[in-house]
Specification:
By secondary structure, this protein is α/β, with parallel strands linked by helices. The protein contains eleven helices and 14 strands. It binds pyridoxal-5'-phosphate. Pyridoxal-5'-phosphate (PLP) binds next to helix 4.
Amino acid sequence: MNLNEHYLRLSDTDPASLIEKKIQEHMLLSPDRQLLRLDAEDSPFPLPRCVDQAMSEAAIQLQNDATLRKLPPVSGYPFLIEAIKNSYSQRSIALTEGEIFINNGAKCDIAGILELASTDNTVVITEPFNPVYYSSNLAAGRNVRFISSDPVSYEPPLPDEEHADIIYLSSPCNPTGYVYTKEMLKQWVDYALYHNALILFDASYEAFIRSEELPRSIYEIEGAKKCAVEICSLSKAAGFGNTRLGYTVIPNPLIFDSVRLNQLWMRRERMKFNGVSYVAQKGAAAVFSEEGQKELCQITDAVLLNAQMLRRAFVNLGLCQKGEVNSPFVWIRCPQKLSSWGCFDYFLKEMGVVTLPGSIFGAGGENHMKISAYATREIVCAAIERFAALMGKEKPLE
Ligand code: PLP
């Protein structure tokens, strides 16, 4: 056998392992100092109570002959698809059952959907970006073009004059936290329609958007159903990081080379996927219940308050600009012009605070850090005090 040579172009370094190794080394040197972790990418909190209950009931059903389930439907159980459809319709977005596909987390579809696209396609990725956008295209041998966010405001870029076939947009953007406005998204939709391109819209963090004016779905933009796939995750707000569940919307009007994309995706799913467990889907359906949405709101409100406190602290320290917070993280400039990894080491060694180096999110993230608000309030307050003490400013909390 010959190897797929494109895989050899992927980096063998795993930033998460490197971070754990650095933490272990640090703990040996400073065993008495409490480590404060501001590097979580998913909700570290327990599953909402109603989810836990729904999953326990489902597990009991699987123990009885009369109620046990065989293989799940490939695209998801109708009860969950219906719940997701209703959640869109509450936001005035009409979808049909065949347009929604349940998956075991957004990441697999972000990469998997590329199988439907020719490897000749040119891909546009807006920097900084979620690493899977780049690595999955690199592994397929596709040509990737980057467009950078504004280096000062971190406002994500608008389309340029050049052609693209596939465009990745993430909103709220991981890692900058920036949310596209409707006007910005409209420009991308118009660009995609003009170029007959596909937008892969990663809405994994949409549950954190509070501003009424900001779109939570690309389908709030006219024309988007003809050019965009939307990918969502329950890892980020509902605590499904381990349970694994997400969903992908591929609208009927999305047609390339006279083929409906959702039909082609269904063909792919039947070939490669055997669906998501009944237990996980029952838990996910509970997330969309009235009680689930209330619990979700409590979790996201607490994380958003953490993010606001962190942002205010970093504004006071001159490391980021004022602005609305609609995501679970804060994107800051490294102090003293440090590199991202240099800054990671500095924060860890001097304060025992773990953050995420911006360079993990592409070259455009160098000299920046991502600070995650996925932590308890105590940890966030303690970290803010340590940042303030290290950088020689007054305690930034009121
Ligand atoms: N999309 C974004 C923007 C992410 O940051 C991540 C994970 O960190 C994912 C998707 C993957 O989410 P999931 O856990 O649903 O696979």
